[in-house]
Amino acid sequence: MPDAPGLELIRGEIDRDCPGAVLATSFDRAQAALIVDPERVLEVLRWLAEQPGHRYDFLSSLHAADYLPNQPRFAVHYELINRDRVERIRIKAMLEDGAELPEIDSCVELFPTANAQEREVFDFFGIVFRGHPNLTRILMPEDYVGWPQRRDFPIGGEPVTFTYSEARYD
Amino acid sequence: MEVERRSLREKQISARDMLRGDLEGEDLERYVEERVVTTTFAKVQNWARANSIFPLTFGLACCAIEAPISIVTARYDLARFGAEALRASPRQADLIILSGRVSIKMAPVVRRLYDQMLEPKWVMAMGACSSSAGMFANYAVVQGADKFMPVDIYVPGCPPRPEAVLYGFTKLQRKIMGSPDQSWRRRYDAYGTEEWARGGPRSEPSPEAARAYGEARRSVEALREAGEPSLA
Q1: Is the ipTM beyond the 0.85 threshold?
Q2: Against a cut of 0.90, is the pTM above it?
Q3: CATH number of B147's domain
Q4: Domains in chain A: how many in total?
Q5: Of the ranges A94-103, A151-160, B43-52, which one carries the lowest mean pLDDT score?
Q6: What distances in angstroms separate CA A148 from CA A110, A140, B59, B139, one per listed residue?
Q7: Interface test with A, best of B138, B143, B146, B147 (most A CBs within 10 A)
Q8: Three-state DSSP class for A9?
């Protein structure tokens, strides 16, 4: 994990090669993150994966989060690892919610392991990955309606009243 | 014919004589009368069914560690109740143990397994999850397996101890011996749904099977038209 000055150095180098792609940095609880422009996330990922001296070339996880009620609402997180130095860095791309489903470029060309993970994000959050070879539901049934991990999705199931604890702690 | 009760010692002596071939006439008739029990065929049939259940080798989730894995081991030994032969095909099984939560994606598969089992067949919902979804009140889990298939016995617990599963199993045996009528299953449309395997999934059934299953279907339809409340 790069430390806070190391993260700023990486940001400076990216700014030199792709100006304007990184919007902000965050160093919280010893975890380094770059917040990037969602339209240019592929540029930054490719730079990190291929730049000599950095080589964050392993995608350990790709996932999404729903920050409702904050805006922009969705974020796609990429966790990259440099396997020589065993360093991790996180890339966040924040996506606005609109009438259409939010869209972002697919990174399957760069990291083939992203294939299933992008399908999972699409399955649960309804985030469309442009250029994905087969963007269909992966865990939920094919005919399922809705994006169940969004925060405004009804929790489902049957309501259960725990009368004992309510009488005692109300 | 009224048979006078004799002591065990006298019975043993008469049995020894019978094996030697010395028993004849009135003594032989008396010997036979003493050793015959009369009952109905249905009772014997249910007794035999209850004591030779073939469970399906089938696990859904963490409860599968308790059953069918634990209960067939030497420590708990389901063989004591005549059910040690787990079958790997639903077509050979009598009992399906729903061991764990049923997700909405798995539900059609479980129902298909149930439909493939031949009559008579029984279902045990094992644990809180398959009985009522347990703690999984969410979008992905069916809220109790009895939403889509008939369940004969519910074993509570998370997971149930193997002893609890065995207790449920003996309860099921008593149910089989006591009341073989399963008409409430018609509510689930679970009669005559057996599939057949003659040269592939879309092949035709044998004429005998088609006739038998057709009759089962027609009897259900006739009951439905007659206004059977469980079918409404």
Answers
A1: no
A2: no
A3: 3.40.50.12280
A4: 1
A5: A151-160
A6: 28, 9, 26, 7
A7: B138
A8: helix
